[in-house]
């Protein structure tokens, strides 16, 4: 497991696994992971199902983005992305998911 390509794709693989768990939990209404995340939010009106499903979509998006950067960019650029850019994107998307999870159902 010392291959450079596998090291780059490790984040994609673990991201897909985690996204799968989030999406499955969100599909069921968020009884486990979604409710656990909603418990730590400072808001009382967070829908656990929406929260889990949204975080699963974020995980899928980030795994796809990591795969694209790992395959298309150099190792140095991938390392810069993984160190500085990845966290900013995740934080912005997570704030968006919380906002969506708090909206009233129509």
List the uncertain runs: none
Radius of gyration: 15 Å
Beta-strand proportion: under 5%
Class of secondary structure makeup: mainly alpha
Principal-axes geometry comes out as elongated
Tell me the helix content: over 70%
Give me the strand/helix succession.
HHHH
Count helical runs: 4
Distance between the termini: 49 Å
- Total number of β-strand segments? 0
Q: What's the main sheet like?
A: none
Task: Average the pLDDT over all residues and give the rounded result.
Answer: 94
Give an account of the 3D structure:
- This protein is mostly helical and 106 residues long.
- The protein is 79% helix and 0% strand.
- It has helices at residues 4-27, 33-39, 48-72, 75-102.
- It is elongated and about 45 Å long.
- It starts with a helix and ends with a helix.
- The model has no long low-confidence stretch (mean pLDDT 94).
Question: What's this model, at a glance?
Answer:
The protein is 79% helix and 0% strand. With 106 residues, it is mainly α.
List the helices and strands and how they pair.
Layout: H1 4-27, H2 33-39, H3 48-72, H4 75-102
Key attributes of the depicted protein:
106 residues; mainly alpha; 4 helices
